[in-house]
Amino acid sequence: MRALPAGADGSPGSPGRRQGQGQGPLPGRVSTLLTGVCPGPPQCGAVHTYLFVDGLDLITRSHVGAAGAPPGLLLRPGGPLWPTDRARTVNVAALGRDGSDAPEVEIRVRLRGRNVVWSGLMYPGVDGGAIEEVRFDLRQYAAELERGYACWGAGSI
């Protein structure tokens, strides 16, 4: 049995903001980002990116028919997921699982101090409560985008 990240089981300390709580993530609590990729046919219609937040597939949980944009687009240095002080809205889905046009799965990405904040989210956590906002340690986040791009991004736009 795989261990869940701290708080991912819905216990106190869960890193995401839950619907109805009225507060942001608890001070000092950060989420972990992990990127992955589907190689495309025959598994899916095209190569696409997975974004796992604390072990949960953000894109599929946000919209079951959506698949991530190509890794060369999402993960590239200076690309849409790289944070800046000014928040920006990013559509992380580019196609449906069958290769057709995808429904939008938008997140707001911004840099706040040494944290990267994703807001505008609405996907179910492990406990079924809505995750609306998560934050990541900038070093872990940047290292994961760099790792994902090095593994799958170059030449995949």
Automatic annotation (TrEMBL):
<feature type="compositionally biased region" description="Low complexity">
    <location>
        <begin position="1"/>
        <end position="18"/>
    </location>
</feature>
<protein>
    <submittedName>
        <fullName>Uncharacterized protein</fullName>
    </submittedName>
</protein>
<feature type="region of interest" description="Disordered">
    <location>
        <begin position="1"/>
        <end position="28"/>
    </location>
</feature>
